[in-house]
Amino acid sequence: MIKTNINLVPDHTNPTPDYYCTWQTQLYASCDGKPEGQRAIITEKSIFEREKPYGWAYFYEKARSDLFFIMDDSWDVPIKDDPTYYGSLILNPEKFPECTKGRTNEESLKYLVDKMKALGWKGIGGWVCAQESEKFGEDDISEYWKKRLSEVHNSGFAYWKVDWGKKQTDIEFRKMLTSLAKEIAPNLVIEHAMVRDIIPHSDVFRTYDVPAIMSIPMTMQKLKELTGTNPPQENRMGLINCEDEAYIAAAGGFVMGIMRHPHAGEFVNGKKDMSFPEVHRNLKTKMYEIIRAARWHRMAPAFGEDNIYASSEELVDTWRFENRDEEMEAWWLEVPAMLESITDGVLAKKAPAFVCRGCTPPEVIADDMGNRPYVVASKNPNGAYSIATLGRTVDRTYEIPKCNITFNIGDADTVAVFGEYKNLILESSCEKVSKVLIQDLADELAYDITDDVHISENKISIPGELITKIGRISQPSDDTSEPGAVIKLI
């Protein structure tokens, strides 16, 4: 391989509404303070004071320009939880004294927006309770939301993550929010959840929570459940947010809502962080995956035009608990569907073997042990292709089976590759490929690997070891991110 002076990654802002969300960082900073403690700790101090477990505004230095910063539940509620404030969307002066001092809510939001943009973030948004505040409510519901939309429009507040609340399953309420926003705050992105039928009327729809240990199969299954969704209506993006699964988002043309954060290891009180356990994938040591996914979205933005196709064949992942309190948040073990999936201390989840959009499913040949990874692949409306192999969880291990995978990319010259392979064979309809470049998406320069690959007729075979080497070449030794690279065929 020969290093070039070519940078395949464009230097512009990611147009996809990807974001980092503070909810799991709130759990970490409150030492698993449960919802009350997590709600209390979302403050000016936690965002801007640098000492651990705070300093959230300084996360993701290399990806900030591609991400929104989303303040989760409850930035608009006092430190002592008061449900009458839910849905107020008024930056709370007790929690944000500097931002709100002597300012209207619109001015306070603008002050915060400017402060976050000065630190390099694409913008800032917030969690929204799906209801009007009892304390600040008005008889005219439409006027209530028009006022708040006017404030976010004038302040530059960029994103509403509309979640639970008294109207969480009210599709007409959710439609109203999006419709009013298009009139009053056209730059505001509104994310919905819970009600599948809202997708065609949404900018973004979130697939919702999954535990870290079973995040891959449960996210794949949630995507399968969204097959057959109606296309987005006029002026709606109809994008799907698959939360913290960055490589599923990148390869599948979805949005990512990142929950992981770089405060690795135990809580400051010495207890284990069960939301991101150090066993299994240890997601808090996989920061460079976020950089790579966000940069690929510069080249191939998330899209809502093509439906989701999921395989009927399913794979099964298992996890054998040794200490449930340290390996999964306690509330998950109160969810009936989760409890029903546990037998003799072993959690089992099944999911489709692959999810594809706009492309032919890749051909996967199992490894010598008969194992295969989960696979996500798509063809972007702009013509770029992408593919990801995702790891399997068995007993108490996590790894990506390294397989020979053939992927038909038509006449595309740009392909993103995430995960690990034995060999990746790209089937191309181009008459002749004379040069192959590859670049770690988190790096600045590409490598010429023409002499390291096998080109015959319409196939380019790339050794998996080469993808792994270059796809991780920029990350520091303490980062365990899986490979992510862009390939250019010339």
What topology does this entry show?
Elements: E1 2-3, E2 19-21, H1 23-29, H2 34-40, H3 44-48, E3 68-71, H4 97-100, H5 105-118, E4 123-128, H6 141-155, E5 159-162, H7 171-184, E6 189-193, E7 204-206, H8 215-224, E8 239-241, H9 246-252, E9 257-258, H10 288-299, E10 309-310, E11 314-320, H11 324-327, H12 336-339, E12 342-343, E13 346-352, E14 354-357, E15 363-365, E16 374-379, E17 385-390, E18 392-394, E19 397-399, E20 404-410, E21 414-418, E22 423-428, E23 436-440, E24 447-448, E25 454-456, E26 459-463, H13 464-471, E27 484-489
Parallel strand pairs: 2-3, 2-9, 3-4, 4-5, 5-6, 6-7, 7-8, 14-16, 17-21, 20-22
Antiparallel strand pairs: 1-24, 10-14, 11-13, 12-13, 15-20, 16-17, 18-19, 21-27, 22-26, 23-24, 23-27, 25-26
Helix pairs in contact: 1-2, 5-6, 6-7, 9-10
Fill in the keyword field for this structure.
TIM Barrel, eight-stranded parallel sheet, alpha/beta, 490 residues, 27 strands, globular
Could you write a compact summary of the structure shown?
It contains 13 helices and 27 strands. With 490 residues, it is an alpha/beta fold.
Task: Please explain how this structure is put together.
The chain is built from 13 helices and 27 strands. With 490 residues, it is of the alpha/beta class. It has a domain at 14-304: TIM Barrel. Helix 1 crosses helix 2 and helix 5 packs parallel to helix 6. The chain is globular, with a radius of gyration of 22 Å. It starts with a strand and ends with a strand.
